[in-house]
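Usage

Read records sequentially. Each one opens with the input sequence:
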Amino acid sequence: MSESEGILNRPFKVKERMRLGFVLFIVLAVVILAADITFFTVSIDKPYMGIVLSFSSKGWTVEGIDPNGNAYQQGIRAGDIPVEVNNQTATVFLQKYTGAGAVYGPIIKQLSVVDRSGQMKTAVLNNSLPSFNAVAELSMWLVTCLIFWIIGFSVFFKKQDNQAAKLLCLVGLFFGLNLSANLAAERVIPLAVQVGAYAGC
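and closes with the structure output:
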């Protein structure tokens, strides 16, 4: 091949590389988008406990509680004392978490507490439905992510060669992935914790 033919072929090679880069970017974006939507979809009908138990000098108590979680819907409130966790006495179940000082919702499938007036209250995840507020919150986050995705993709398709447009598109997708994976992790969806951590990074 002569030097002049090599020079003439360069634009075609550049175009081929650009086309390959475009295709690879679209494949990556579609994979991330599919993971986003999958996590939102599998989370929508899953209830979650939405509670944090903490240990102090006074013993174990309910410290934090999500108003959209199953525990709150069953009347459990901050300050309540756990008496049974996952069908074991609270003393036995929580003993292994004393060093950590806290237990978060995904570990807890069943919780019985005594409130300040001495009443027993129980929340169970098995065979329960998510609250209306939990579904509404998840739907609101999905709509927020859809706005990010639409903006990101529309800017990218208008300016495909612009690095800032690609970055905006990816940021929107990873924002959705981080959010959907964290919501799925609350509902104990497999791989959600790991994916959420990677997406956050």
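Summary fields computed downstream for this record:
- The mean pLDDT is 88.
- Residues 32-45+131-200 form one domain.
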